[in-house]
Amino acid sequence: MGNLTPLAQFGSLAPATPGVLTRKQKAAIIVRVLLNSGTDLQYRDFPEELQEELTFLLGTMRHIDRDTLGQVVDEFVEELDSLGLTFPKGLAGALSILDGKISPHTAARLRKEAGVRQTGNPWERLGNLDVAKLLPIAENESIEIAAVMLSKLDTDKAAKLLSMLPGPRARRITYAVSLTSGITPDSLDRIGLSLAAQLDSQPESAFDKGPVERVGAILNFSTASTRDDVLEGLDETDAAFAEQVRKAIFTFTNIPARIAPRDVPKIVRGIDQAMLVTALAAATDPESAKAAEFVLANMSARLADSLREEMSDRGKVKAKDAEEAMNEVVAEIRKLEASGELLLLSGDDESEDE
């Protein structure tokens, strides 16, 4: 029972002639028939007031004879047959069916202008957010509210969020989780709606990624001298930000620490062989030589031998050509990462071929 609009409309009209079943009573009968037949009826998708009325009617109505049941079902089927198309009621419904079809910025602006909040289960929405967006709530809300939110998140996300908090606050929130068992469903719903409303009121960012990721991506493809100069300047103005940017940067020398050996053949296949030979031949300093050897050691022996011969014939590589070739290797890795075909290691993990 995917689209519940016809059933909601069937139960939301004015009563029929006095002395006979009302439209809402008929809707209650249809609901009962569907539930009896094992239909997965998404009752929660009805408007709340209709859910309440139908539940009340289901609890108060008694025996319905077979003829009356047949007439109600026939009437409902007839209305379904005559229904050509339904539209969402109001801007909230329109935004709901257009979710993902219009830009987030446009949707946020329309919601703000019309005073429309997001619909749906607030805890489901919160649970789908990145930990980075939940962190300010855990940091700034009361300990009790943070404990409730932690309890509603899946275990992995809750653990990651907890690890990002200062030790004393993390301990207080963890203890407060033990005190949440007395919270009523109504209170839980109100807390979820309040937190979701906070998120709705936040301005939409013009950028898809944070400043650390943006600066890191730019420096990834800058020359080594420019990258070192920028990071040195950042160290002087904001050492913490500089450290985060360093972690976001991925260069040729990071390959051994952040690429799993099993992913090397996949990377090599996507790079022009002449460009790959140039990058490997240019790796003469200790760090880049370690990266080149890692790449060669994790491909087929036949291909590695062929590449070593070409590297020997290639001779000395100009600095400009070296930068271009190494950036080509990094670009291929980033492309595979973005498509989900490759997962970069944290840098602290051991590169194990599972």
UniProtKB/TrEMBL annotation:
Q: Where in the cell is it found?
A: Bacterial flagellum basal body; Cell membrane
**Flagellar motor switch protein FliG middle domain residues:** 133-204
Give the bilayer topology.
Peripheral membrane protein
Q: Name one GO biological process term.
A: chemotaxis
* InterPro entries (alphabetical): Flg_Motor_Flig, Flg_Motor_Flig_C, FliG_a-hlx, FliG_M, FliG_N
- According to the record, the segments passing through the membrane are none
The GO terms this record gives for MF are: cytoskeletal motor activity
List each copy of the Flagellar motor switch protein FliG N-terminal domain by range.
21-123
Pfam families in the record, alphabetically?
A: FliG_C, FliG_M, FliG_N
Give every Flagellar motor switch protein FliG C-terminal domain span.
233-343
The record's keywords, sorted A to Z, are:
Bacterial flagellum, Cell membrane, Cell projection, Chemotaxis, Cilium, Flagellar rotation, Flagellum, Membrane
Per the record, what is one GO cellular component? bacterial-type flagellum basal body
Matches recorded under SUPFAM superfamilies: FliG (SSF48029)
Q: What does this protein do?
A: FliG is one of three proteins (FliG, FliN, FliM) that forms the rotor-mounted switch complex (C ring), located at the base of the basal body. This complex interacts with the CheY and CheZ chemotaxis proteins, in addition to contacting components of the motor that determine the direction of flagellar rotation.
Q: Which family does it belong to?
A: Belongs to the FliG family.
Protein name per its UniProtKB record:
Flagellar motor switch protein FliG
